[in-house]
Amino acid sequence: MPTRRALVSQAGATALATPFASRRARAQAAVARMSMGSPMPQAHPASTCLVEALDAIRADSKGQIDITLYPDSQLGSELSMQSQLRSGAIAFTLTSVSSLQTLVPLAGIPGVAYAFPSYEPLWAALDGGPLSERIRDALGKFGLRAFRVVDNGFRHVITSVRPITAVADLQGLKIRVPPSPLLTSLFRALGASPTTINLAETYAALQTRVADGMENSLPQIEATKVYEVQKYLSRTGHSWDGLWILAHGRTWDALPRDVQTLISRHFDAAVGKQRQVFARMDAEGETRLRAKGLAINTPDREVFRAALVAAGYYAEWKAKFGPDAWGALERYTGPLGA
């Protein structure tokens, strides 16, 4: 099995291997091999739906466009893959809203705690309109071309210590979070001790009690199998997270228009299918996780939101994002922090 360094080297060596100057040149050229990195497990619908899309791109281009997905952090952590994408070492990546905030602060704004009550206003905000435009413009300034957002769901807390029924239950708990300033701030405001651990290393960290628990969506909890080493799942629904499909801007701009159209069409279809598959998995997840032995509870979420208001969480992030961006968010969520 190739090492992570070998995979990254391979990705960088092939991402720009084929010129796309004309139809004639494409017909005469070797296959254009490009790479896509992803932190998501192979069984996650984000991975399975993208693999189907890449197969379709390969088929429709008669093998001329060959994009390989490397799931499960094979090319490194999310922050490492973001760096590789910006340098052009890889052509595409799937990267979470939460971790992308460390590079592009505004990218994290959909993950503000308890901002979206449901998917209807969320997709309205991210599939078009002023908030989406602001985020895409911010990503563009870092040389990134954004496609649609893959769903990774509303997040919940799973622990080996105790169920979370009230804010006091979080006091002092070491909770694994992605490298997200918003999530780190959220759990600190609630009295927990958030710790950043790479997703691929989280199972071992929970098994060895490096962390007392983690927070994620039900399908992600299933995909990572952390239910094997945890006992309690609390449906806190504290934040939403998704993943942008991103391209290296210069690599994308170098592609001919018909190739861009082909890739975009299949990426858009993959996102639409992924959201549907994810919604079914999420709806059925609690039943499956109960069957695997988890004790599941649903606490009063307004208690947690009130604690965040009192701790100044919303005031802090309104100041950081700025009144214009915050206003664009509240256009879909209603007033936050009151």
TrEMBL record:
Q: Extract the InterPro entries matched here.
A: DctP_fam, TAT_signal, TRAP_DctP, TRAP_DctP_sf
**Cell compartment(s), UniProt:** Cell envelope
| Source organism, top-level taxon | Bacteria
Give the main location.
Answer: other
Concerning PROSITE patterns, the annotation shows: TAT (PS51318)
Q: Which UniProt keywords apply?
A: Signal, Transport
The cross-references to CDD domains, in alphabetical order and at most eight, read: PBP2_TRAP_Siap_TeaA_like
PANTHER family reported in the protein's UniProt record: PTHR33376, SIALIC ACID-BINDING PERIPLASMIC PROTEIN SIAP (PTHR33376:SF4)
Its family remark reads:
Belongs to the bacterial solute-binding protein 7 family.
Specify the protein name.
Answer: Sialic acid-binding periplasmic protein SiaP
Q: Which organism is it from?
A: Methylobacterium isbiliense
Organism lineage string? Bacteria, Pseudomonadati, Pseudomonadota, Alphaproteobacteria, Hyphomicrobiales
